[in-house]
Amino acid sequence: MSLFSVRMRSSREEQGTPVHISGAERIVAETDLERVAATFVQRAMQHKNGTPDFVNLSIERVCPEEIMSLEALPIQTCDVEDVEEGHRAAHHLLCEAGVSSESANFAIALLKAGPAPGGRVMRGAVLLDAEQPIRMEPDPHRGVRVSKLDWEPSVLESWCNGIGHLGIARPRVWEAIAIASKVTAQPEVIAELCWSDDQSYITGYVASQQFGYVRVTHLKPLGSLIGGRVFFIRAGTDIQSLISRLEKQPALVDRLPTRPYIEL
Ligand code: PML
Asked: Where would one find the signal peptide in this protein (predicted)?
């Protein structure tokens, strides 16, 4: 069976600069291509952050032998009252995972201010040295976009059935888990911090192999269009090799979490 990576990204030009609005990723069988492409166009055109003036839809054949097998990170939720408590919780989780306090604080401040030049959002993620707050991604406008990934359909169905009672079995959550599972499976990555740039969505997460995918219920104020992702990487990482795997190596979440939850 032929598999294809389908990717969408949309943007709008503001004062001569393209500003990212939305993106989406799937790996699908040829028979699903048209349906998924139509869903992505609809998603781009109806995004809550605005109507794009540029939508890029790309379809690329994936070689099944190259697909990396991923175990889904286990999911937990850390309930917090407000943004300040959320940032404290994220800082704590990042430090426990092995990130320095300086890098954790820098990342939180960066996502608060807007990680791209001019306080804008980035299409991809920031790569941050986990020891010292030094940005390592070659292009701070674009960042690193984790690409070519999806869930194996039967595994996603079991995952949804397993957490149905929590009310969070929805695309935003499972797509974020796929990204976090691929990112933290890279030996160079210690942890990820993310919150959405969708103005209506305030829950974000800290992901690591140590704690899994920890949702933090309040990481930004409602109505804010600023968010993004930071990947904390080990000192001495071969940046080009890491970026190449994150952006180009196809990966499928084809296993449910097997590790026990670690107490937060
Ligand atoms: C995004 O939508 O851009 C980020 C997703 C964060 C998902 C947090 C959650 O688990 O609810």
From this structure: none
- Tokens 């992505």 — which residue? 40
Segment 220-236 shows an average pLDDT of: 96
**Residue whose CA lies nearest to ligand 1 atom number 2:** 196
Query: How many A from CA of 74 to the centre of ligand 1?
Result: 15
How close is the Cα of 101 to the center of ligand 1, in Å? Answer: 23
Question: Given its phi and psi angles, is residue 144 left (phi above 0), alpha (psi -120 to 50 degrees) or beta?
Answer: beta
CB burial readout 180-219, b (16+ within 10 A) else e: bbbbbbbebbbbbbbbbbbbebbbbbbbbbebbbbbbbbb
Q: How many CB atoms lie within 10 A of CB 86?
A: 23
Instruction: For ligand 1, say whether the CB of 194 is within 6 Å of any of its atoms.
Output: yes
pLDDT at 260 over 80: no
pLDDT digits (tens, 9 = 90+) for 141-200: 899 999 999 999 999 999 999 988 889 999 999 999 999 999 999 999 999 999 999 899
Question: Does ligand 1 come within 6 angstroms of the Cβ of 203?
Answer: yes
Separation of CA 48 from chain center? 18
Is residue 236 a contact partner of residue 208, using CB atoms and an 8 Å limit?
A: no
Pick from 66, 127, 61: nearest CA to 251 = 66
